[in-house]
Amino acid sequence: MIEYYTLMHKGSKEEYTDNIFMNFGSTVTVLMLSDSGEDPIPLSEEVKTRVSTYITACRGIPFDEVSTKLKGYIPVGTDYMLIHINDTSINIERHGQIYASIVKRGEIKMLPNGPFSIEDDDRVVCGTAEFFKYLSKPAILSDALTAESCEEWMDNLVCRISDKTHLAEGNLTAVTLIVRKDENIRI
Amino acid sequence: MSDWALISNEIRALIAYALILFVVAVCAFSYFIYFYRTKIKKAASEEPQLSLDVAYFHERGKRARQEDSYYISPMDESRKYGLVVCVSDGMGGMRYGDVISQHITDCIKEMHPISFFACENNADAIRQISNDIFDDFKQKGGATLAMVQIHNDHLTFYSVGDSDIILVRNDEATILNPRQNYVALLIKSLVRSGKQTQVAYTNSKARALVDYMGNHNPRVIYTKKPMRLLDGDTIIVNSDGVTDAIPVKSIPRYDAPSARAMAQNLKLTVKQKKHPKQDNYTGVVIKLQRGIV
Questions:
Q1: What is the pLDDT, as a whole number, of residue A184?
Q2: C-alpha count within 13 angstroms, C-beta hemisphere, residue B79
Q3: Given this model, what pLDDT does residue B45 score?
Q4: Chain centroid, CA B74 distance in Å
Q5: Which of A96, A167, B33, B125 is deepest in the core (most CB within 10 A)?
Q6: Same domain for B55 and B20?
Q7: Out of A146, A155, A158, whose CB is closest to B223?
């Protein structure tokens, strides 16, 4: 099972223009679209609807197929990240200023494109460049190692950003994910 | 008559010598294998770890009494059990702050040696110390606790309240432990309603602790898994008297080749600020470096 928590904060902007689309099952699909970077390519409502509809129905479809399909929908030059994650593996495809880091065995590493094996209690955070702007690697790591849940991890990260910006800058968009083997799920 | 009797005495002697030589060779080979395996194992276990250089300062500010306490586990046992360092800061304006902070560091001292990997049990033990204080002092006083344990180039930490555990890496200082104060709760609440957070920092109770040692069943923040440390890292465990005087981001400016020199820099800087309400200030500096022989 994958535990997750999302952050969508408009900051000082008039509108929240980033997007997160998710599909939940034994494999969780996350699509993050950034519309608030330095040179954003505005996404039409039609594109958003098509992408949303596709992600909602993408359960069981192989990663490569989803990726190929999305390339047809999303305009070239748009910052986005597609993630497929389950109990044993994570597959990532990122374009532009969206990043993901994995916390594994007491260390933090940036995730490049491609598939990787993961284990119980591995923790992943993905977000826009605006989200990571004020977060150092040790900060992300220590918050991951002390947090009981995805929500707490995100709260602690947001506190750090708030200490620097009062959350008064651009849109903040991020997702925290924790791999939970079934026997470790707390009731 | 057996076939053996047909062989001449010289040949028999040669065969006997050959057998003896064979047995000696087998023994020598076995010993060789055993010796080198032991040596390799030993070498692997003695893979050069980061050496620990520790120094501290413990000063009274403008307060009537010293309410900070600290504990540093024996350095000569750090290879075996790891190094434990903790700082406890008695809550100002409450009675027994000094007694409680001293009690906490004494209890941590009694826990030595502390298991490095039993983080949950250690957190339970810290919670129990807090519950005992609650029973004895009935919330007439309290203290913070910031504790680190370093073993085999890895770090675990425990925290209750708002004392700091700071990592200085690549000229950047990061507070590792989340502070358990009211501002964190306000931020959480504001974010959930999509607001900015300026108002959280101007709240008169922003710095009030929401959890502390002396509370009943406090939340002990602790690392669920050890964190990898790197060559050149510096860990500072300190009371907020230090970080109130020196902004965290400027701490790397006071870095020095030895822990003693860095501790001295920090201590003198706080002293030179001459803040009229300077809180007590205590800090333990731990520098990790690859030892070269």
A1: 53
A2: 7
A3: 56
A4: 13
A5: A167
A6: no
A7: A146
User: How far apart (Å, rounded) are the C-alpha atoms in residues B25 and B18?
Assistant: 10
Total domain count, chain B: 2
Read off the CATH number of the domain in which B122 is found: 3.60.40.10
Give A77's Cβ-side CA count (13 Å radius): 7
- pLDDT at residue A187 in the model: 44
Nearest by CB to A106, from B169, B197, B225: name it.
B225
Examine the domain organization and report whether B69 and B9 are in the same domain.
Answer: no
Dihedral, CA atoms, A154, A158, A160, A161, nearest 10 degrees?
A: 140
Residues paired with A101 in a beta bridge: A110, A125
Interval A9-67: pLDDT, tens: 999 988 898 999 999 988 999 999 987 666 677 788 899 999 999 999 999 999 999 99
Residue B214: the pLDDT is 96
Cβ within 8 Å, pair B194-A10: yes
- pTM of the shown model: 0.86
What phi, psi does A75 have (nearest 5°)?
-60, 145
ipTM summary value: 0.90
CA distance B234 to chain A (A): 12
* Domains delineated in chain A: 2-184 (3.60.40.10)
Residue B222 near chain A (CB below 8 Å)? yes
pLDDT of res. B33: 85
pLDDT value, residue A14: 87
A146, B194: Cβ pair inside 8 Å?
no
Indicate which of A163, A169, A178 best probes the interface with B, i.e. most B CBs within 10 Å of its own CB: A163
Q: Is A57 helix (H, G, I), strand (E, B) or coil?
A: coil
Instruction: Let me know whether B169 and B32 are in one domain.
Output: no
Cβ–Cβ contact B207 with A under 8 A: no
Quick check: B107 contacting A, CB < 8 Å?
Answer: no
CB-nearest partner of B197 from A142, A145, A167: A167
Nearest CA to B191 among A38, A4, A87, A157?
A: A157
Residues B85 and B32 in one domain: no
Q: Quick check: helix, strand or coil at residue A30?
A: strand
φ, ψ for residue A18, nearest 5 deg: -75, 170
Q: Examine the pLDDT at A185 and tell me if it is beyond 70.
A: no
In this structure, are B13 and B141 located in the same domain?
no
Amino acid letter for position A144: A
pLDDT averaged over 10-residue windows placed end to end, chain B, 293 residues: 72 88 91 78 65 95 91 94 96 85 97 95 97 93 96 96 97 96 95 95 92 96 96 96 95 96 97 92 95 61
d(CA B230, CA B15) in angstroms, rounded, equals: 61
Residue B292, pLDDT score: 60
